[in-house]
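tl;dr need the bound structure. longer version: we got a ligand (flavin mononucleotide) that a collaborator sent over and nobodys looked at where it sits. i said id run it. heres the input, straight from their email, havent touched it
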Amino acid sequence: MPLRLLTAGESHGPVVIAMLEGLPAGLPLSAADIDPDLALRQGMNASGKPYPGASPRMKLERDAAEIVSGVLDGETIGAPVTVQIRNLDHAKWQGRAVPPMTVPRPGHSDLTGAVKYGYSDLRPSLERGSARETAARVAAGAICRRFLDEFGIRVGSYVTEIDGVRADLSGIELEDRLRLALHSEMHCPSAEAAAAMRARVQEVMQARDTLGGLFEVVALGVPPGLGSHVHWDRRLSGRLAGALMSIHAMKGVEIGDAFVNARLPGTQVHDEIVLAPDDRAGRLARRSNRAAGLEGGITTGQPVVLRVAMKPISTTLTPLQSVDLASGAASPTAYERSDFCAVPRAAIVGEAMVCLVLADALLEKLGGDSLAEMRPRLAALRQARLEDLPMQNVPRVWWP
Ligand SMILES: Cc1cc2nc3c(=O)[nH]c(=O)nc-3n(C[C@H](O)[C@H](O)[C@H](O)COP(=O)(O)O)c2cc1C
């Protein structure tokens, strides 16, 4: 896979860092391409209105990207691109004696991380297991978004369900969903559903509890032919699902309406292949997009639609039962400043991971060390024509 991402940094350390290796040269890039995505991840919609349910820390942090390698004179040079984001909260923790944390929160990496690495204090699990790391992913995703933009590929997201409030988006085109979500109070294209979701989040905060929910990530303008059916780790469906599942608290990924489709017969699910109407060049078209843009682990050229399930936030104001590992006695969990519902913010992280995987797949498909080398290669991909397929009506002997 040509594009590699490394992230580093702890939740209350001085910085979080993203390093992207494998980007071609010639991509115009500045911090201004990254900061808007960082603001969305922090819990501020594109109109500058905060989402409810975000941790008070989000009011303190003002995430700003500093590009420290790989860009000269406003363009990538083909070398690793490194971005750092300062943790403003770090100053409060610097030189402070922090009591050991010995009661693991169920649902977090506190216990599993400490058992695995042998920590005697749970804080190192928390520091690196925290979703603060997703700021680095979003920075890297924004760079990939900038790259995809050069090829007419757009990635967006929207929240579809929180606490039983399900947005009915059936009458809203994908393009419009992405646009409306950006300015919504809950990152949801339906104003009615957004208002109901907001009320539910406020109720759950009063009830000293937390929520998860569902969001969708959509990619538009994706050319056919990204990914491959020939090997398990090259199938784009698996790569996308794996990248989304790697985000903290994501517990399910669905390609399109996969779970509904699984209950239907094939004739009601598969997208019939037809000759594009009024197209003399012999282009192909589909009657529907139930496959959500992916067949055989390869993009079809239709929109890619991925649905993601996030579990409720695991730090709850109402204590959960746990055990104090220092004394061995049963103990309720202690509360640390935390989000109540982070689904609108998680959707932005989901976009970042999809941008990363698509940028990687595009680089794999087109090859090339500079944007100038890649651009002409895309045009051919955009045309899936019958006459280009190497098919001849001649019997062959397949096996030796
Ligand atoms: C954007 C975002 C914000 C999050 N904020 C919090 C938080 O404030 N408190 C918390 O306990 N968990 C938060 N989480 C979830 C934890 O990181 C998650 O529960 C933990 O990593 C364990 O999940 P896992 O089992 O999937 O790794 C957040 C997740 C995301 C994606």
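gonna send this back to them w/ a short note. DSSP finds twelve helices and 18 strands in the chain.
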